[in-house]
Amino acid sequence: MGNNTETSRNSRFCDEFVEIVQLILDGEASEEHKNRFNDYFMKCGHCISYYNLESSTVEFLKKKIEQEKTPVPDGLANEILSKIQYMA
Amino acid sequence: MNTQQINTQTANDPMSDNKKNYSEKEKVAIFENEFMPHIDSMYNFAYKLTFDEEEAKDLVQDTYLKAFRFITSFEKGTNAKAWLFRILKNSFINDYRKKSKQPAKVDYQEVETYYNSENTDQNLTIDLRSETLQNRIGDEVTNALNSLGVDFRIVIILCDLEGFTYEEMAKILDIPIGTVRSRLHRARNLLKEKLRKYAQSMGYK
Q1: CATH number for the segment(s) B3-96
Q2: Considering the domain B108-201 in this protein, what is its CATH number?
Q3: What tens digit of pLDDT does each residue of B15-39 get?
Q4: H helix runs in chain B, sequence order
Q5: CB A12 to CB B129 under 8 A?
Q6: A73/B57 Cβ within 8 A
Q7: How many CB pairs under 8 A join A and B?
Q8: What is the model's pTM?
C-alpha cells in the first residue's frame, strides 16, 4: 500500500490516498474509491489522522466562506425583471 | 455585447444543443421561476470575482439579460444554476476582466505542472480543530481566499460554497474534470498555507 506505512510523523502519504480523501470529502468518490479508502483507513493510523485533519479543514473553510457571502443589493432583482418585461 | 460570442458559447454547451420553442409567456415564466432564484449566488460570485459592488451588479445584470436573450438554448427544468454560472463566468472573462483592476492572471498551466510534478506535501496540513483557533480566524479566510488567483478562487467558490459537482464545474469552466480536481486541490493547499502562516503568527504551531 504505497508509502503510507511509514510511521514517522513527517512521512508523506500516498498520492492515491490524498486524492481519494479529496474525492470522499467532495462527494465524488466511486464505490471503488470508497473501498480503497477503507483499506487505507483500517491499516494506517496516519491516514486516519490525515483524513480527520483534512475533513475538519474543509468543513471549517466551507463554514467561513458561507458566513462571508456578500448579500445582493436591494432592487437589483426588480431592475432585472423590469428590463426583461421590456424585452419580452 | 458580443452576441456572436455567446451564440458560440451556448452552441457548444451540451445542455443547450437544441433550440426550444417557448412562447413569450413561457420565457418569462422560466426566467422568473428558474433563473431568478439564483440571484443571491450569482451576485456573490460576481462580487468575489470583481471585488466591486457596481461591477458585480453590472455583471449579474448582463448575465441575466444574456440568459433571457438566449433562453431558447436552455431546456426548461434542467440545471439553470450551472447554465447561469457559465454565462457569468464567460462574461467576466470576456468583458470584465480586461477592464477590471485585477492583478495579472495566474499562469495556472505553470502551477498545475508544478502541482502534478510535486509530491503531495502533508506539511500543508493545518489543525483547525481547536475552537479557540477557529474563533480567532475571522476575516482571514476571506482575505486568504481573495488573495488567491482568480482561477483558484473560482473553484473554491463553485465547490465549497455553491456545492457544484466536478462535472458541473468542468462544464462551467470548460476544462477537463481532472483539471477541476487538481486545481481545487491546489487552491485548498494555497488557502491552508496562508491560514497556517496566520495561525503560526498567533502562536499556534
Answers
A1: 1.10.1740.10
A2: 1.10.10.10
A3: 545 788 899 999 999 999 999 999 9
A4: 3-11, 24-30, 39-50, 53-69, 80-91, 108-117, 131-136, 140-147, 150-156, 166-173, 177-201
A5: no
A6: yes
A7: 119
A8: 0.81
